[in-house]
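Why do we bother with holo predictions? Because pocket geometry can differ from the apo form. Keep that in mind while you read this record for cobalt (II) ion.
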Amino acid sequence: MKLDLPRYTERFGATSLHGVQRVFELDSGFDDGREGRSISETIRRVSNEEISEIERRMAIVIPIKGERLKLLEGVLSGVPHDCLTIIISNSPRQPVDRYKLERDALEQFNRFVGRNALILHQSDPGLSDALREVGYTGLFDQNGVVRSGKAEGMVIGMLLAKMAGKEYVGFIDADNYVPGAVNEYVKIFASGIAMSKSPYTMVRISWIYKPKMSETGLYFSKWGRVSETTNQYLNSLISYYTGFETEVMRTGNSGEHCMSIRLAELLSYSSGYSIEPYEVVNILEEFGGIIPTVHQDVMDKGVEVMQVETRNPHFHEDKGDDHLREMTVASLGCIYHSKICPPKLREKILEDLRNKGMLAQGEEPQEMPKITPFNVVDMRHLARVLTKATSFAHTE
Ligand code: GDP
Ligand code: CO
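The structure, written out:
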């Protein structure tokens, strides 16, 4: 892959937030005696050797809740062979056992491609028992089972990725219509990691277009309605501390992103759909230099957040207006409730949500439960006790 180096960077304590980088070439070939890594001062070539080396050390987590199987099958086919695929499902098991259908589809797929994959249902009581046994209970609801929610699924995926000895974990939604786009996301993840200078790294996908159907045909819009608002407030938060307005954040709601496990295991996560923007907020809270941190090594080495614009457009399921409202309130809510959110910004968020009719007068966005870092989990212990989870399957 050939992509440009970050053109500008916002530095916030130990955190570097890089501006969007573009892809020039999806596949830039093998090394075999070719020109070196940097073709110029501004473009970086990441060879196929480098990419596959990183893919071998990467798990791809696919959170899924009741998506159409055809879409899941397409996504599976787009994930590079050497990655470990991990599906975390929250699909209904009655009247039809949708989870079983997903597992069957995965098993059938793997019979043909011989790939390594894991699948698990997040509300499996055996999983909750295992988590209780290792003392990691931040994912539980009042009944002591793992809550419903996308973030909850993603955290379980990260636990399994670490348990399997992977160094990187990437996320790809299951409702993507274009397998080729899925493949590009993973190549971008690997290229970003190859370019990063820190072991504490995050790579977020910025979609070139999010096409919509209109009366006159396909319209290639640049921005989703939710992400535009989320990015605006993330940027305001950054500007408040730096004193300079910025547009650096473009990927506040990007479900497609990856992290080094070394970074992932230190973060706190916000429940449900607020997970993606809160990852950025939490990085600023922890490593932005505003609040002291116990992780001196991270402060020394720095955290890098990269954003890379795809070549493929993003086509996914249209989930309707209620979903947009839920996502917007959850996204702005996690900024609103952050301990580093200045009072002025808080007021603006309230006003905006009320003007949009998403909150009633006098109503505040609900504070989402937080999930504490998983670096405390004893992985060997977890691997031993996870055998209780009956939905857990490993296919090869
Ligand atoms: P959007 O694309 O950001 O608008 O959100 P989606 O509704 O498409 O959700 C993103 C991905 O998360 C999809 O693959 C969903 O099936 C999946 N998802 C949503 N809720 C849950 C959940 O509670 N648990 C799990 N494991 N996955 C979920
Ligand atoms: Co979607």
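DSSP finds 13 helices and 16 strands in the chain.
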